[in-house]
Amino acid sequence: MIDSDFWKGKKVFVTGHTGFKGSWLCLWLHSLGAEITGYSLKPKTKPNLYDLCRTDELVTSIYGDIRDLTKLQTAIINAKPEIVIHMAAQSIVRHSYYEPVQTYEVNVLGTVNVLEAIRNAINKGISIKTFINVTSDKCYENKEWTWGYREDDQLGGYDPYSNSKACSELVTSSYRNSFFNPIHVDQHGLNIATARAGNVIGGGDWTKDRLVPDCIRAILSSNPLKIRNANAIRPWQHVLEPLSGYLVLAQKMFNSSGQYSQGWNFGPDSQDERTVEYVVQYLIKKWGKEIPVKQINGEAHEAHILKLDCSKSKSVLKWNTRWNLEIALDKVIEWTRVYQSGNEVREICLSQINEYSSSKGESKDANPNA
User: Fold this and answer.
1) Which of 240, 288, 358, 366 is the most exposed place for a label (fewest CB within 10 A)?
2) What is the chain's Cα-based Rg?
3) Which residues contact 226 (CB under 8 A, 6 or more apart)?
4) What count of other Cβ atoms lies within 10 Å of the Cβ of residue 223?
5) What is the number of other CB atoms lying within 10 angstroms of the CB of residue 24?
């Protein structure tokens, strides 16, 4: 599925590289032999996966705000990337109610800035072949359907975060149509796509107001876990699942004739779309420590059910999920126990990447000593 020969020596520019998903992606790309430049704010939490894995040793890291077009443009021009993966974002739904302006600035204007910086770099003769804008499953107009949303369903979003991700999708579509039309890819050389993933989980996430990090914190501290909607159904998936989708999509897009320049869903299989309560009780049971769980009233609207239909990615890209929800949760516990014991966490990350990659016969090994 993932071609290590393809990634060896590829110049990749990653925005949001200091975040949870960005750190995992940088570790994976480095293990594949890519040359990575990252552009992001400094990590927001202490501790954080980026620092624990000493990721600065593996990437050329530029600390900057995605809203700073001049600095971002200079970084992209200097890096001369072949592939750009845009993940910098304000990523928390509840925070978007407190800071809606900031959420729109980062998620919408930030996307404009990345695309404009790419456009200017190409105009200066830099050959950028692939741009992937990572948005969210929440970009769809949620109608509380019991079936999954497909890529051609209506975009919308109830809250500022979800709506900002729909806006980011529209910005990407506008730039694709106006400046990088797939019909003329032989002239400008750039393929543009968006990637919509579900609720990612994995070791090393300390973000507030995310269920699994909140649950792990409660377990480690023996404090009560507060949940807002025990019966809400979400498309839970290990972080390596959508990341593998982005890598496969980038491979397909590179030097293609524009047929992959569209939106793509990367979510779990239907049996892994489980309730909040299921996830909480599974983690508590597997850890082997009882903690009190309290249902609280959320002051902000939250969707009850959200599912993705990933049949297009599976049939066209030949991408498939590898770890079910139970394995994903087991991997969170495995990672947390290593961290709790004070052992090397870069090694456990690369070990899990290697295990994930080889779970269906992929041969590329991540090097724990990288």
Assistant:
1) 288
2) 19
3) 214, 294, 296
4) 11
5) 27
Locate the domains of the chain by residue range: 9-296+304-358
What are the tens digits of pLDDT across the range 246-268?
999 999 999 999 999 999 999 99
Q: DSSP string of 225-264?
A: EEES-TT-EEEEEETHHHHHHHHHHHHHHTT--STT-SEE
Q: How many beta carbons lie within 10 A of that of residue 237, not counting itself? A: 28
> pLDDT per residue over 354-370, tens digit each?
999 998 634 334 444 44
Hey, which residues does 94 pair with through a beta bridge?
A: none
Of the candidates 82, 143, 133, 77, the one whose C-alpha atom is nearest the C-alpha of residue 108 is: 133
Left if phi > 0, otherwise alpha if psi is -120 to 50, otherwise beta: which for 61? beta
Mean pLDDT of the 115-135 span = 98
Q: Report residue 151: phi and psi, to 5°.
A: -60, -25
Beta strand residue intervals within the chain, DSSP E: 11-15, 35-40, 60-63, 83-86, 130-134, 191-197, 199-201, 225-227, 233-238, 263-266, 273-275, 293-295
pLDDT in tens, 262-289: 999 999 998 888 999 999 999 999 999 8
d(CA 306, CA 156): 13
Q: What stretch of H or E contains 90?
A: none
Whole-angstrom distance, CA of residue 187 vs CA of residue 180: 9
Specify whether domain 9-296+304-358 bears CATH 3.30.70.600.
Answer: no
